[in-house]
Protein: GTP-binding protein
Amino acid sequence: MIVPVLLVAGALGAGKTTLLNHLLANPDGRRIAAVVNDFGAVDIDAQLLGTVTEEVISLKNGCICCSLQGDLLRTLSAVIKRDPAPDAIVIETSGISDPAEIIRNLMDPVIFKVAPLETVVTLVDPQRLRDAPELEQDALWRSQLRAADFALLTKTDLLDRVALDEVRAVVGRHKPQSAIFEVAHGIVPPDLLFSRELRAPRAMPRQMPVMSEPFATVTWTSRAPLSLARFQQVIGQLAARTLRIKGLLLFTEHPGKPILFQSVATRGTLAPAPLPPADGLTAQLVLIGREGEIAADQIDAVMRGIEMS
Structure:
């Protein structure tokens, strides 16, 4: 059983619990377990989240990047063994946590095999950044932002366009604009946070508000022999125009050994896959990007470069 992990970071009051509450209430057909960490004896976040799901596990009296590190790893192991197991795990860090150490532990090969780190998002409160511009020089704030695949500007309904553009410019000094998204009321499309399943049919999501930025999905398949060396050469072209990629591939360099490729923002991984692509295919990829920035013919033109004649 493989259960992907979403790590949610950000300063105190940035809107992490609001995002997690919305995600748990609108799981897009997924069974989601949440691990929350509030620095203190009383875990307020877990109490709030408990109103929308029973799948909340609380780590109390410490920061999961330091004193509760062992508890986190034990908790992940216990959650995966539940019956039924969740489809995904969301870890909400404390506002005073540096996610870098958490990420380092989640990338441990033993953990990654069963609970791969899927996405890291860091939330930024634009109004706070405007009120306290010195926050940009804070080492923890910068580390939280540096660790993120995507930076989410929260509470954007409270600021006008000029103010938001000013904040985007500040955050843009630390993250590419393509990795910055604007969020109101914690609403984030699940496809931005979790890659699509390749085989299992997806449950129809409940109708809900969406972010202002629409997304497009492209599926690419092949039956031709594929070159791993060529794939590694062209994947950078795809990363520059997509937000997420997930796929199963068979390469001629490794006959009979299916490979799972996943990328989010600029972070990509290749790992052994339990099953090959479906229906005798050699490649089965799902790519997600901003609408208007990816197109099937463009993706096909790039990907045909990995096929061997």
Remarks:
- Residues 137 and 291 are 34 Å apart (CA to CA).
- DSSP finds eleven helices and twelve strands in the chain.
